Here is the input.
Amino acid sequence: MLAVMRIVATTVIRHVPPGTCSGRMLILELADDQVSVVSDTRLPENRFREVDPNRRGGTRGLRCVTVDGDQLLVTDSTGISILSARSGEVVGRVEHPLMGGVHCVITVPGGLAVTATHSDTVLAIDRTGTELWRWRPTDSPSLQRLLTMPQPVDPTALGDFRDPSVLADHVHDVTHLNSLVRDGDDLLVSLGSALTHDRRGALPTSDPGRVRFREDAWHPVPGQWRSAHIIVRLTLAGGTAPGGESVDLTSTLEPQVLWVGPAKHFPNHDLLPVASGVWFNESNTCEVCLVEAGRITRRILVPGQFLRGMTRGHEGHVIVGTQQPLTLHDVDLDQARVVRSWRIPGDAAESFTWLAAYPAEAD
Here is the structure.
């Protein structure tokens, strides 16, 4: 019997027009054979929705939710809303010009770190939005020697990556940074769909799914590129934030590449470190995969479409999400099987974007 557990989830509703709700934050209570919606929160729509050329996703919806004590950190495309876990009220907002296409937020020493997809940047900031440090995979000499990625627009040249109508004329989002997790003092970073000349990637130029993913919102990069999912480890010295002014860590951090594989149509998502390696969601094939020593050693097929969202469940289990219909699944990693699933009321075009365990002390 499954002990009752609570999950906080964020969603995106794709293709909806401006002025229509494009995502929710849900607190869900899961039991053996039933699910209860404890709360259903709609946050204000992103301020750039009216000028967003992307007809699919873009600035729609919510991206990530992180439980931080008695607060919830919820990202949309251009910032972080800070909510009281008890009341659900928005008590703060954090933005920065590099924070365009925000996917993930985590806590780090001194503040918060986000993956900013539009600026191809892992960015650390304090809670006033002041930059602490940054890391850009496309500027990493070792990654470029290994993978050869195109060079996106220089942040100093563009300045602000939040307005998607400005970005459409510039090369950006060439790595599709999405997931970011702490593993001790290290950070694990997912380049969900990076353009590269590495032959382990999938060719995107003739892939109609890839074209749909980039629909109306992306400046094509000249040449022939492959689309790869890449996972790297970054080690921050002592796990502490740099002192003084903002520091660009790109030239000083030596990323360890844990995985390079094809991102066939859409980006892959989510990271869950374990002693032997790291689990991730293969969103294209709907499989939960374990990477050990640079190769996939286990694949667990999950029923449904577009696997996204992963959080620890009970011991040896994870909870993951699929869409059409919106569904959560309890996956036994040791037995390599889905043991139960829960249908969640939602829109036909709605997809999970993030899942997090919701501890009792957050109430």
